[in-house]
Amino acid sequence: MANDPLRVSEIIIDFHLSRTLDADTRSIIEAAARHCPVANSLSAELKQTMRFHYDA
Fold first, then answer.
1. CA 21 to each of CA 16, 36, 40, 50: distance values in angstroms, whole numbers, following the listed order
2. Cys-Cys link to 25, which of 13, 21, 41, 55 (CB 3.0-4.6 A)?
3. Nearest of 53, 9, 52, 2 to residue 31 by alpha carbon
4. Partners of 16 in the beta sheet?
């Protein structure tokens, strides 16, 4: 949280996906997440951290 004014300053999203996904599929999924219209409509001041884990 940030102060003055009180607001969310960062959102962290962890994606847990199958390790069996090939490199092309991983690339497509990651690009789709990073170019999401909802994420792109949020304030530029909001830090968006996306972490991709291929472990399931």
1. 12, 21, 26, 18
2. 21
3. 52
4. 53
Tell me what the pLDDT averaged over the chain comes to. 93
Contact 1, 45 (CB under 8 A): no
DSSP H helices, 1-56, are: 23-34, 37-41
The C-alpha atoms of residue 32 and residue 19 are separated, in whole angstroms, by 18
* Strand positions, DSSP E, 1-56: 10-17, 47-54
Give the Cα-Cα-Cα angle 13, 16, 22 (nearest 5 degrees). 120
Residue 3's pLDDT is 79
Domains of the chain by residue range: 10-54
Measured in degrees and rounded to the nearest 5, phi and psi for residue 13 equal -120, 125
